[in-house]
Design a protein that fits this description.
Number of helices: 10
Structural class: alpha+beta
CATH class of the largest domain: Alpha Beta
Shape: elongated
Radius of gyration: 21 Å
CATH architecture of the largest domain: 2-Layer Sandwich
Number of domains: 2
Helix content: 25-40%
Strand content: 25-35%
Order of helices and strands: HEEHHHEEEHHEHHEEHEEEHE
CATH superfamily of the largest domain: Reverse transcriptase/Diguanylate cyclase domain
Number of strands: 12
Largest sheet: 5 strands, antiparallel
CATH topology of the largest domain: Alpha-Beta Plaits
Length: 291
């Protein structure tokens, strides 16, 4: 099947798709790919994936467009490969996606590769937990995560097993400098990007804007080790985000982690808050656990 036929076919697909040639120059970018990434085809077509515009990273933070690219593997090995990675949206946040890279051939000769990708973002936040009128009372209008009313009014009713819930108290590092140097409107953009990364990658956790640049994730886990891994994933994904406007800003976060373990919610929040301040004292951009 030739390239023009593929383009006509893929334009109507529900999956996001782009095609690269053997040199990994992007030659096609379908409407669903534009929707998921925030980039228009005009911004992407003609660029090489190793120019790192989409900037995929894996669970360790490795930049796959520079080393370990699934598309390059598919081309070199004539083999389809699947991977779970994190895409860099045009606005700056990280989106978890599943990619399938497939060699593209004509007459048996490999001419490039096709990447099909789909969004793996948590659906928890989009689910209708309450009716719409009441639900809006629990949403922070800037970041579109839950607000503190959600903690006070709803959280106890949702948490069934306190021994299996982790609390991650998150603070954006050096945020006052962003407001002072670049203005509050740009500070709002940073807040939205960090919140979106946390929300999309919290695997059915409940994400709350606690105040200012502070967020809390309430997440059901099997044990503390799982909670540590999730906290580290969020820290890494925020660190690997670049906010692209008139300047490039790379946010980082400090995370205080504790388990609910039968404590009252507000008491556990205080413990996680104390742990977060210890992470700050230890140098920022890290996790501290209150066991």
């Amino acid at each position: 099947m030739n390239l023009n036929t593929l383009k006509t076919l893929f334009d109507s697909f529900y999956e996001a798709i782009y095609i690269v040639d053997k040199n990994r120059k992007i030659v096609y970018f379908n409407p669903k790919a534009e929707e998921i990434t925030g980039f228009s085809k005009e911004e992407i077509i003609g660029k090489h994936c190793h120019e790192n515009t989409l900037n995929h990273v894996d669970d360790t933070g490795k930049q796959l467009c520079l080393s370990g690219c699934p598309l390059l593997y598919a081309i070199k090995n004539d083999e389809t490969i699947d991977a779970d990675v994190y895409l860099h949206h045009k606005k700056g946040h990280r989106i978890p996606i599943h990619v399938r890279s497939i060699p593209y051939k004509e007459n048996g000769i490999i001419l490039g590769a096709v990447e099909i990708f789909s969004n793996r973002s948590s659906k928890q936040f989009q689910d209708a937990i309450y009716d719409v009128e009441k639900h809006l009372n629990y949403i922070d209008p800037l970041t579109e995560v839950f607000n503190r009313y959600f903690i006070n009014d709803k959280l106890d009713k949702i948490i069934e097993n306190k021994d299996k819930f982790a609390i991650m108290f998150i603070d954006i590092d050096n945020f006052k400098k962003v407001n002072d140097m670049y203005g509050h409107l740009n500070g709002d953009i940073v807040l939205k990007v960090v919140a979106e990364t946390i929300k999309r990658n919290s695997d059915d956790g409940y994400v709350v804007r606690f105040g200012g640049e502070e967020f809390i994730v309430f997440k059901q886990v099997n044990d503390l080790d799982e909670a540590k891994k999730h906290s580290e994933k969020l820290r890494m994904l925020v660190e690997r985000s670049v906010i692209r406007f008139e300047f490039k800003y790379r946010p980082t976060i400090s995370v205080g982690l504790t388990m609910l373990n039968g404590f009252e919610v507000n008491e556990a929040i205080d413990r996680a808050d104390s742990a977060m301040y210890q992470a700050k004292r230890n140098g920022k951009n890290q996790i501290y656990v209150y066991e």
